[in-house]
Amino acid sequence: MLAAMSGGVDSAVAAARMVDAGHDVTGVHLALSSNPQSFRSGARGCCTLEDSRDARRAADVLGIPFYIWDLAERFRADVVDDFVAEYAAGRTPNPCLRCNEKIKFAAVLDRALALGFDAVCTGHYARILDGPHGRELHRAADPEKDQSYVLGVLTSDQLRHAMFPLGDTVKTEIRDEAARRGLAVADKPDSHDICFIADGDTAGFLRNQLGEAPGELVDTSGSVVGEHDGTYGFTIGQRKGLRIGRPAADGKPRYVLDISPVDRRVTVGPREDLAVDEVVGMTPRWCGAAPSGAMECAAQFRAHGTAVPSRVEVDGDAVTVRFHEAQEGVAPGQAVVLYDGDRVIGSATIERTAAWAGSPA
């Protein structure tokens, strides 16, 4: 059993539970930055030298072998470069899903299996259960910590070689358990936001990567209402930081409705224009057998959002999701994750959306 140890409390307790369960556990810390900082910036970020040392100390307490795997080059290509390219194209990616898909349960799992390990365990909050669909991915018992959304890219084969020991536990119990075990990370703050943007300034990070590309903010009539430094600084549904030069005629706030990197235009308008009732997703990933035809299920398009009742049609690599009620702030590039109750059916990357036009048929 290979235990991925980030240097945080969750992965340390997950590894400890695998030891208690009688598994022959080896800890591994993933070095994902080619130039890691020595210390974290507040409670943000991860993968620093401090984190690797914390992971090693936890492994020492548990009495398990420990290694550091350098995956910085792979992480840069598959996660960071993808993140930058998606924003440059006017899309809104989720790097945590991409990391789980390309790094933790592809590069790491493939290497683990090649080395003779039978599974990889992580500190994710989700459950893997045996059911009529084989090995099934389910939501965690703690809804506040549930991470099944960012794991919705895992295939059935990957689920057969994955373990999530924390899925039945709430976070407060994890910290208490870590303290009882003598793990120094018991009170360590959680990492937040995007791990490779330690200061949380996504727009600044993208500006450094892409350079300034000034353009216009326009309203739905095409009138120029402001200027910007780059379309990558915006996401669909954004309200704050628009720097609009003059207020709307009705005095109401305006939101980002559309992003067009080609002509460097960002369209803003009233909140009601954000409503969509349909999304089309591509490159689906199924946590079991691929469904076909139409089905009723719930669809979630944010990591901490609510899954909403929907009708889904699967046609090869295209997944059409029709919400029963209009949804706001849905953007191309996001993942739509499908649920049957607590069970994750699978996911797809949103390619396009359709504006709300009344109740779906």
Automatic annotation (TrEMBL):
Locations listed in the record: Cytoplasm
Residues flagged as site, Interaction with tRNA: 124, 334
Primary role: Catalyzes the 2-thiolation of uridine at the wobble position (U34) of tRNA, leading to the formation of s(2)U34.
InterPro entries named in the record: MnmA-like, MnmA-like_C, MnmA-like_central, MnmA-like_central_sf, Rossmann-like_a/b/a_fold
Gene Ontology cellular-component terms listed: cytoplasm
MF (Gene Ontology): ATP binding; tRNA binding; tRNA-uridine 2-sulfurtransferase activity
Main location: cytoplasm
Catalytic activity: S-sulfanyl-L-cysteinyl-[protein] + uridine(34) in tRNA + AH2 + ATP = 2-thiouridine(34) in tRNA + L-cysteinyl-[protein] + A + AMP + diphosphate + H(+)
Gene3D superfamilies associated with the record: Adenine nucleotide alpha hydrolases-like domains, HUPs, Translation factors
Annotated protein name in UniProt: tRNA-specific 2-thiouridylase MnmA
Catalytic site positions: 99, 195
Keywords, ordered alphabetically: ATP-binding, Cytoplasm, Disulfide bond, Nucleotide-binding, RNA-binding, Transferase, tRNA processing, tRNA-binding
Region Interaction with tRNA, residue ranges: 145-147
GO biological process: tRNA wobble position uridine thiolation
All copies of domain tRNA-specific 2-thiouridylase MnmA-like central, residue ranges: 205-269
Family: Belongs to the MnmA/TRMU family.
Residue ranges occupied by any tRNA-specific 2-thiouridylase MnmA-like C-terminal domain in the UniProt entry: 281-350
EC number(s) reported in the record: 2.8.1.13
Residues given in the record as ATP binding sites: 4-11, 30, 123
